[in-house]
């Protein structure tokens, strides 16, 4: 049975109503080194199932999501096998998101605070920094991908800008002047939405999720009408289709890819589930936002891409164009092209904010609560996304493979540890007050504020998948999340059950149990 405990009757002092992450409640006993108005438990949890549903719509609708969904239908397996992979993969994601959502919804705190239960009040900075760095990398890449849309749009109306779009003598750090203009415009638009706080973000995704769908359906309908239904195929692969054991392994890989694709937002989903009124709202929103939404989106994508191949043709190398920005850019109808380009730019703003802006905002704030607010943490991530020059990262296949896959390999053990601790070790009990105290006798202080078992499980659970990324095949690399999650889960369980309490908690073993 779910249970939330408090360890005292200290008076509650509500914070200002103006903090970006929502109004919270801070007790006088809370240690300032662990607390600020953004990390503290929420005073009111008001999100409904629709807000969670809209969150996932925004998370799925993006240029990256479009390309990813299209790539699954180009794996060389039958369409029915792709649909099976989509169903199985997204159902797994749905179940895992329900699991990771519960502790944050229960306590009203974001993901990095929730991890204090397993890692300790100081050790929680380890998963927070790891997740924050991953978000910075993806934030920069998504911003760059969406910024391409603005460049294409500008060239449609002002062809004379062509001389500023090539990466020639005028390029700076590998990006053309027009590219910089588009990137910074996208960067500023996202920062403005974020800076206005979680309530503005909620309203933004509530509107944009359905609005983007309307345009996507119209775009798909237009292309199908122009191409004819007979030219719509659910097989986007080139060459002979895989059969026998090869098709089975491709099917399994597709399932793993679906889970891996959502591994980032899935890990820090607590940053959003904390706002939900009830856990029932979370589960209902997840159901409509994941299995139902993702399947419909994927089918819509393959219809659009397949029909687009007939209407606009293929690229210079004879490949089907899966990037929606380039699809709409090649449409003869200027109005449709402009509407499509703007739509996918807005869609990417949505996913970038919910998946890669809010997360590092909480993560970096958790590192130094007295100095870094939620807004400051988000802006640190935004500035970092420029410094990594994501266009150079994205345009170098080896660099993006080793950078993002290596960072992503660490997500698995973090997830496995959180689930093992909350459901099997702590039995779904959280002492909320102890999340915000440095008292050595408190439950989550462990050994000097750090749980050595969680740290060891993270290191081992990350190194093995990273080894697979570096020395394994591309097929093996698609399972790094599962490998890391399993190792982290098992190591943490064994360590917490088998190791001496003195090693985990120091000399205060009497207060080690929840």
UniProtKB/TrEMBL annotation:
As for family, the record states: Belongs to the purine-cytosine permease (2.A.39) family.
InterPro entries in the record:
Pur-cyt_permease, Uracil/uridine/allantoin_perm
GO cellular-component term (any): plasma membrane
**Chief place where the protein resides:** membrane
How does the record classify its membrane topology? Multi-pass membrane protein
Identification of the protein by name: NCS1 family nucleobase:cation symporter-1
Cite the entry's keywords alphabetically: Membrane, Transmembrane, Transmembrane helix
Say yes or no: keyword Membrane present.
Answer: yes
Transmembrane domains' residue ranges:
66-96, 136-158, 178-197, 204-225, 245-267, 288-313, 333-355, 376-394, 406-425, 453-473, 479-499
**Which Gene3D superfamilies does UniProt cross-reference here?**
Hydantoin permease
